[in-house]
Each structure stands twice: as C-alpha cells, then as structure tokens.
C-alpha cells in the first residue's frame, strides 16, 4: 500500500506542475525528444570509432556506454520528485541543475551549473560544425557526380555555418520546450532516416566487395603513441554519442499523468537507449566492415560513398534537418534557465515580457520578446564563432564527450541516488557505485587527454 500511495502522490504532484502549459506528453513524445537528443552528430563518427578500437573493443564500448547511460537515466528519473528528509517537503525538479541544487546543495549546484552551461553550449557548437559539413557534402557530392571522383571539389565551411546559424536564430524564438513537440518528431524521423541510409550504404558495399574488412585490433599504425591517442578519441566520440542526461528532467516535466511521470520516463528512456544502441552498433559495424582501415571520420560526409549521389545528398539533408531540431532541444534548456533567472531577478522589467504578436500565413502566432530576441540571437552567434575557430569534427566530438561525461552522467546522478535512497556508507551498494564512479573517472581522464592532443595537433600542428 505504501508504494501505491507514493505513486498516487507523485501523480498528484506532477499534475500540479507550476508550468503554465498543459501536460500532454506521452511515452511517444518523450521517446521522440530523447531520440532527437541522443541520435545526433555522434552517430556519424561511430564507424571511425569502431575502426580505431577493432571488432571486439568497438562494439563492447558501445554497449558499455549504453549501460552507463541507462543507469544514469534511472537515477535522474528518481529525483524528479524529491522529499527533503529534514522537513518533509516535496520538491518537483524541472531541470537537471535544479535537481542537483535541491538534492546535493548550493556548492554542488554551482559546479554543476558551470558544467551544464558548458555542455549545452558545446552541443550547439558541435551541431553547427556537423550541419555545415553535411551541407558542404551535398554540394561536394553533386560536384563529384558531375566532374568525377578526382575533381577538386573543396568548399569552405564558414558560409554553411552562417546559413545554419541564421536558421537557428529564427528557430530559437520558439518560446520553450513545450512548443518543440513537432520539431522533435520531425528530427527523430530524420535521425532514423540518415542512420538507415548510412547503415544501408555500408551493407551494400560489404555485399558488393564480397568481404568484411577490419580486424580485432582496429586500424594499424606504426606509431604506438598515436594509436593510444586515437583510441582515446574514439572512446570520447562514443561518450558524446550517448549523452542526453541534461534534458531528461525537462522532458519528464512535460509528461501527463497517469501513469506517473517517473514510470513513463523510465519506459521511454529504456526503449530509446535500446533502440539507439542497436542503431549505433549496426551503423558503426557496417561502416567499418565496408572500409576497414580507410573508414572516414564522418560516415556520410567522408566520401567513402560517392554513389548513388542523390541518396548521399538526401542522407546529409536529413542530418541537417535533425540537427536543427536537436540544437533547439538542447538550447531550450539553457534559454529557460537564463530567462527564468532574469524574470525572478527583475520581476518589474518589461524587457522579459512579450510586447507584440505577429501572425504570418498558416504559421503559429509569433510573440516578440526583447529578452528572447537579444539573448538567444547572441547565443547562436557565439556558437557559430567557436565552431568557426575549431571546425574539427572527430576531435571536437571527443573533447565534448569526455569533458562532461563523468561529472554529469556519472558523478552527480550517483550522488543524488545516495541521498535519495539513503544509501549507507560502506554498504555493498555504496562500495559498488563508488567503484563504478572511479572506473568511469579513469576512462574520462584518458579520453580527455586524447581529445586535447588531437585538437592541439589539428589546430597548431
């Protein structure tokens, strides 16, 4: 009976969500949000990652990081509702940062805030780089088709970054994550589409050449030190591909009850992680099997595939459409944090209030908000500027994955679990999770060192 009372109370609390928006989310909308966030630019580097690690360590690393992500998602779902043991009050945490503040206190919240802001920002940078590469690849694909595979079809990324940035400036005026359901659904469909295209092209090439390339040890090199750095970068790329912890509580807060938001979110997370892991495995394995030591860093833009050029073009177009949505799903979290802070700090300011409405054709009504317009535009411009400074796909992915993997996916969720479940120090569960945390920390340090070496070599080498 106690368990039933808790679920009823959770449902009641979730219905009293102080958001002005009606809670209409289901397991399917949550699934769309998660897949939009998880299957991003990281999937394009997985064939290269498997190629660095080989046929045993590559797939094993994929499944290991899927396990880490599933454990993290379960821990985070549990703290959506947190009851303070000292006074018995129950708090609904609408964001990852709020949860850390509530459960672990101000100091941990401050450290987490810096990492959260950095993580969201670096995702915007990575998506800008990836989208520009995909747009450029469409132009290159047409050029190779018309002029031959040996033609000098090289184009600058900067113009395509500007184009993607202009689209994001407009899209960023979407008020909040409650208004991005349609964008997530489109983006999720696009992610499945280009994953299928990359996987299909790899399988066709394997069948056509009549052999499976690759080896247990991965890509061979005469420099053992360089091999170590490449392995570290590959693991960092895999870590980036599975990262979605930051937006989980925002998604959970949009779900309707009954069933309870926690039950729905755990179900959606499990389905999403299982689905994406299967896609990741087949995308990584088919790419490595097709190209072996020649596996490109980006499966659809590295031009291992030239024909059919229209299918390569379509796959890259799907990537761009997906990343337009993915950029917004992540960025809306940061936008909400900053705009909520401003509204609380300056409640009388008219800068954060809607001042005019516009209605254009069949599009939804658009409300002009000075704070939203200025801050979000500046944010998009800043992500573009950093992307232009470091336009290196695999190295940036590895750095982005390694710098925040341990603290946000491992450390804070485990610490919140200890507090939420009142885990006794030196108990079996406490020791097990401490060993788990230390192991993941060592992996993170290794991948971070490799990604920094790669960035320095690319930028200054």
Tags for this model:
single chain, 14 helices, mainly alpha, two-stranded antiparallel sheet, 71% helix, two-stranded antiparallel ribbon, 461 residues, Hydantoin permease
Describe the structure.
This protein has 461 residues and is mostly helical. A two-stranded antiparallel ribbon has the order 1-2. β3 and β4 form a beta hairpin. The protein is globular and about 70 Å long. The N terminus is likely disordered.
In the CATH hierarchy, the architecture is Orthogonal Bundle
* Secondary structure tally: strands: 4
Calculate the mean pLDDT score and round it. 81
The level-1 CATH class: Mainly Alpha
The CA-CA distance between the termini, in Å, is 65 Å
Q: Gyration radius, to the nearest Å?
A: 22 Å
**CATH fold naming:** Hydantoin permease
Q: Which structural category fits the helices and strands? A: mainly alpha
Give, in order, the helices and strands: HHHEEHHHHHHHHEEHHH
The total domain count is 1
The proportion of residues in beta strands is: under 5%
Low-pLDDT parts are: 1-20
Count of alpha and pi helical runs = 14
Strand order of the largest sheet: 1-2
Q: Fraction of residues in helices? A: over 70%
């Amino acid at each position: 009976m106690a368990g039933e009372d808790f679920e009823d109370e959770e449902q009641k609390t979730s219905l009293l969500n102080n958001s002005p928006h009606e809670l209409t989310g289901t397991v399917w909308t949550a699934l769309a949000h998660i897949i939009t966030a998880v299957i991003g630019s990281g999937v394009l580097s997985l064939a290269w990652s498997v190629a660095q690690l080989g046929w045993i360590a590559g797939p094993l690393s994929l499944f290991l990081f899927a396990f880490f992500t599933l454990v993290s998602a379960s821990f985070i779902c549990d703290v959506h509702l947190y009851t303070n043991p000292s006074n018995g009050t129950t708090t609904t945490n609408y964001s990852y940062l709020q949860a850390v503040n509530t459960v672990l206190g101000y100091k941990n919240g401050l450290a987490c805030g810096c990492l959260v802001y950095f993580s969201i920002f670096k995702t915007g940078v990575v998506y800008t780089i990836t989208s520009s590469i995909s747009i450029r690849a469409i132009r290159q694909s047409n050029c190779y088709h018309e002029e031959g595979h040996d033609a000098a079809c090289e184009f600058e990324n900067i113009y395509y970054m500007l184009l993607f940035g202009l689209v994001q400036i407009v899209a960023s005026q979407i008020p909040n994550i409650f208004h991005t359901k349609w964008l997530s659904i489109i983006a999720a469909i696009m992610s499945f589409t280009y994953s299928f295209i990359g996987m299909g092209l790899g399988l066709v090439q394997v069948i056509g050449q009549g052999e499976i390339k690759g080896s247990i040890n991965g890509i061979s090199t005469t420099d053992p030190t360089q091999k170590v750095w490449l392995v570290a970068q590959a693991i960092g790329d895999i870590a980036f591909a599975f990262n979605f912890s930051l937006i989980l509580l925002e998604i959970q807060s949009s779900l309707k009850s009954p069933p309870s938001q926690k039950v729905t979110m755990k179900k959606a997370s499990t389905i999403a992680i299982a689905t994406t892991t299967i896609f990741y495995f087949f995308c990584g394995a088919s790419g490595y099997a097709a190209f072996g030591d020649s596996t490109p860093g980006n499966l659809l833009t590295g031009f291992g595939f030239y024909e059919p050029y229209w299918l390569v073009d379509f796959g890259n177009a799907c990537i761009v459409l997906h990343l337009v949505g993915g950029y917004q799903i992540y960025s809306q979290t940061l936008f909400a944090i900053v705009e909520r802070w401003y509204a609380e700090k300056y409640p009388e300011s008219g800068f954060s209030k809607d001042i005019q409405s516009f209605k254009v054709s069949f599009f939804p009504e658009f409300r002009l908000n000075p704070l939203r317009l200025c801050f979000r535009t500046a944010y998009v411009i800043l992500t573009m500027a950093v992307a232009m400074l470091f336009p290196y796909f695999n190295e940036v992915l590895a750095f982005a994955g390694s710098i925040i993997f341990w603290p946000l996916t491992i450390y804070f969720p485990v610490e919140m679990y200890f507090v939420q479940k009142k885990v006794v120090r030196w108990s079996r569960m406490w020791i097990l999770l401490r060993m788990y945390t230390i192991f993941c920390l060592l992996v993170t340090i290794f991948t971070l060192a490799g990604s920094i070496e790669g960035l320095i070599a690319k930028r200054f080498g």
